Amino acid sequence: MYDYHAIIVGSGAAGGLVAYRLSMAGKKVAIIERGGYYGTNDFTRFELDAYRKLWWEPRWTSNSELFGDMDEISLGMGRCVGGSTTIFTAVAHRAPAWNLKEWYRETKVTNERGEPLTLEDLEPRYERIERETRVRRYTEWDAGTRLIAKGFEKMGLKAEAVNAYVDVNCDQSGCLFGCPTEAKRGSLVSYIVPSLYAGADLFPNSTVREVLVERTQEGLVAKGIKFLDSEGRAVELKSKVVVVAAGALETPQILLRSKLRELSEYSDSSLQIGKNLAANTGTIVFGRFRDTLRNWLIHPISAEVPDFAEREGFLLQFSESMEGPLGFAEVVTDPEGRPLVGGKLKSLLMNYGKVAGIFVTIHDSNNGEVRLDSNGNPVFYKPVTRGDRRIIRRAREVAEEALRLAGAEEVFHSILLSHHVQGTCRMGEDTSKSVVNSHLESHDVKNLFVPDGSAIPSVLDVNPSLTIYALADIAAEYMLRNNLKE
């Protein structure tokens, strides 16, 4: 009757962890991944090759039609086995307690006792995942990081080493292009490969068309998926459980194409699919220094100043250089936001080895939406509000001051960026504001789980991957105790 106990769409933080937990419990698992399967020998650190193989093509928010706002945000995500964890900066943060309180206010996220979810509820999961992914304090600061830390020190601010999914054999470069040493312990290394050894099946380069849903006496029930495999052949697989963990941009598209709104007769919960998009909008403030720093040879995020996160809504992390001149040239602007071209850009690129930067991320609003247009193509709406702009201006001012005090002779900005897209299928017990419940199962469709970043109810003030792993852990544990109980 079933081909698999569970079919998992997506192999990033959420998909990888669920696949691992279920496979290790003896369940038959299929992993469907849109991108290719590349191992450490394929990670050459050649910038163009990495962007082509491992990243989604450039995608931007578009706001003018719905919101009358012309600011755009570049959305950078991984499209490969391991998802964004293959090309991320490996920073591992636990969720701040104030963010979890906001989750309860937003959508009534609860623990298994029906009480508001707290940091204490997540800590055992964090500890387990940190052991599995070898999280450690990253203290091997390079010259650029130490320099910027001194700039903050002159402002009375103390830089802290980040926690990172990075083993001790890290040679400190190439994170954005795939790690050739297996030092970065993302989903690929920590969860996907062990799942395959445990018997899971992997379908890379495959495009999911829809979740198969049947109407039964118990209501709507997920029964499997339809997808196109790497050869373009239509495939239909059946399973007891379907896990959609394709990320906050792709997951709502899959659910919308599966006609969940229509099948659920436009329930309050189904109308939330795709809504409440948050970007954790980021920007980089670069400084050109007198001496050569060779900043691209370091771990891209080694330190942070967290003082402003709760109080003013922004986090400062460094030392950032984009790890390659092509990516740098694409995003760098002057302080007024104008792109650098011609002689100005050439001069700066000639001094690329002297550039180091501070990555700013802000607590923006869950006010965006993933929609499908009349042709079925995705459109990503995300307004940048006046409040967002105010936070960005303030954060840039702080970063500029730190860089100048550190000795930067020139300062540059970047376009708006997002690598931490969240929301769009939020979790919670309030069905009028969420798509899945507190153990990440759909309110409308039994046996359908969404445990990825799209489930985060309101934007985290820190890098979200560790919390996405923790949410996936909640979902996997619930499946094994209930949906997949023998």
UniProtKB/TrEMBL annotation:
Stretches assigned to the Glucose-methanol-choline oxidoreductase N-terminal domain: 31-278
Endpoints of the signal sequence: none
Domain Glucose-methanol-choline oxidoreductase C-terminal: residue ranges: 414-472
Keywords, sorted A to Z: FAD, Flavoprotein, Oxidoreductase
SUPFAM superfamilies: FAD/NAD(P)-binding domain (SSF51905)
Flavoprotein listed as a keyword: yes
Entries under Pfam families matching the protein: GMC_oxred_C, GMC_oxred_N
A molecular function GO annotation: flavin adenine dinucleotide binding
Coiled-coil regions, chain positions: none
InterPro entries: FAD/NAD-bd_sf, GMC_OxRdtase, GMC_OxRdtase_N, GMC_OxRtase_C
Family per record: Belongs to the GMC oxidoreductase family.
Name this protein carries in UniProt: 2-keto-gluconate dehydrogenase
